[in-house]
Write a structure and sequence with these properties.
Number of helices: 20
Number of strands: 2
Strand order of the largest sheet: 1-2
Length: 421
């Protein structure tokens, strides 16, 4: 009889649990419907039940709940704003508690909710962002949050807080700049936001980014980090602008390239050799960089760099590189202007007849016009070049002569093109 009683209790409990699970599912469906219909008052009441009774039912509850509580924040009066903000922050905490592996960046969201609504003080906001950056740096994809974090970090440095030294400030900027660069590639639609954040962060720290600060810091940290590819990359990026000719820059870039060859590591080595006038080695590494690059714009810019390096010594190779740049980014008008100038500057080098020389100017003019077609901002420059090239345009008799010869002019030399009329 006693056993029968316990079995009965077991099945009643099981039924109760099953009923509760069904209730959670139904409540979640109701919440979704109310949110879709913008019935936020009704959604808020359902959300309160779900937060209490079904906290681990589904992540969807929290994603919907954030919309509901954000609406409460948006419509709150001045006196009730902080209470609404704090309730949303509790929901973010509850989300992380029940779904610790979520990727919703809730710590960053908490900090920016406080910041955007002018709630809480800088100390609280900084503490949350510091925790987010330390524990879940890979999730830090909010460009403005990265800037706010660095701005507050700099404020602590200026206020001479313990642990905030010049070296630490530079290292923090280096870390943030590297994350911004990665995010720009990972989230191309937000690249402008990240670019703005990077400029803003750099403007804060630029007075400290001197060779006198950067080189000793890199030398001091190298041995402890010589197998840390993240540190090697961020430090190489930091040194590349003002210390590219230094020995420590070459040491870091070489170590990075050996451990984890990439377009960046090769580019840094190219830059080092260029600064030290080792042109052959520079071209070799820039070539590697372009080959390793997966982003077409990066490829194009590196090929453009290569073209500019060797334009004076090897126009055939320069043309090959600039055409590769155009192939990877045909909408960059500067590439066409460079090629137009490459043509026009070769008129007297090819020992050509007057007709062929004018054909070269014609080809240069046609190329310059292409620059204006792909980038309207370059129209003025293209028009100026057109006027310059027009001084060497064909006479009517020369055009008649060309037409009698099949309507085309063959240009030899390194250009090796046929211009059709």
């Amino acid at each position: 009889m006693k056993a029968t009683f316990f079995i009965l209790v077991y099945f009643i409990s099981l039924g109760s649990i099953f009923s509760q699970e069904v209730n959670c599912i139904e409540k979640q469906k109701e919440l979704s419907v109310f949110v879709d219909q913008y019935k936020f008052k009704e959604a808020f009441e359902i959300l309160a039940v779900l937060r209490k009774k079904c906290p681990s039912q589904s992540e969807e509850i929290y994603l919907l709940g954030i919309k509901v509580l954000q609406k409460n924040v948006d419509v709150a009066s001045e006196t009730s704003k902080e209470a609404a903000v704090r309730d949303l922050l509790k929901l973010y905490d509850q989300y992380d508690l029940n779904f610790p592996d979520n990727n919703n960046e809730n710590l960053v969201n908490k900090a920016m909710t406080l910041y955007d609504n002018k709630t809480g003080d800088e100390k609280e906001i900084f503490a949350i962002l510091y925790n987010a950056f330390t524990s879940k740096r890979i999730q830090f994809t909010n460009a403005n949050a990265l800037y706010i974090y660095f701005k507050l970090y700099h404020a602590n440095f200026k206020n001479k807080k313990d642990g905030f030294s010049t070296d630490k400030l530079i290292e923090k900027y280096s870390e943030i700049a590297t994350i911004i660069e990665r995010n720009s590639i990972a989230f191309p639609k937000k690249s402008e936001e990240f670019s703005n954040a990077n400029r803003a962060c750099k403007s804060i720290v630029k007075e400290y980014l001197t060779a006198e600060n950067l080189i000793p810091l890199a030398e001091k940290k190298f041995e402890a980090n010589n197998n840390n590819t993240d540190w090697l990359l961020s430090t190489a990026n930091l040194l590349s602008e003002k210390c590219a000719s230094s020995t420590i820059f070459e040491k870091i870039a070489t170590q990075l390239h050996q451990l984890k060859p990439s377009s960046k590591s090769a580019y840094h080595l190219g830059n080092y050799n260029l600064k030290n006038r080792n042109i052959k080695q520079a071209v070799n590494f820039f070539n590697q960089s372009a080959t390793l690059a997966t982003d077409k714009n990066e490829k194009a810019n590196t090929y453009f760099t290569l073209a500019t390096i060797i334009a004076a010594s090897d126009k055939t190779e320069a043309r090959k590189f600039i055409l590769s740049a155009i192939e990877n980014n045909p909408k960059n008008g500067s590439f066409y202007l460079f090629l137009a100038n490459l043509y026009s500057n070769s008129v007297n080098e090819c020992n050509s007849s007057p007709i062929v020389q004018k054909a070269i100017y014609y080809l240069a003019n046609k190329t310059a016009k292409k620059a204006a077609e792909v980038e309207l901002r370059l129209k003025t420059t293209a028009n100026q070049l057109e006027k310059e090239y027009a001084k060497n345009s064909f006479t009517k008799s020369e055009l008649d002569q060309i037409q009698k010869s099949g309507g085309k002019v063959s240009i030899g030399c390194w250009i090796n093109e046929t211009v059709q009329f």
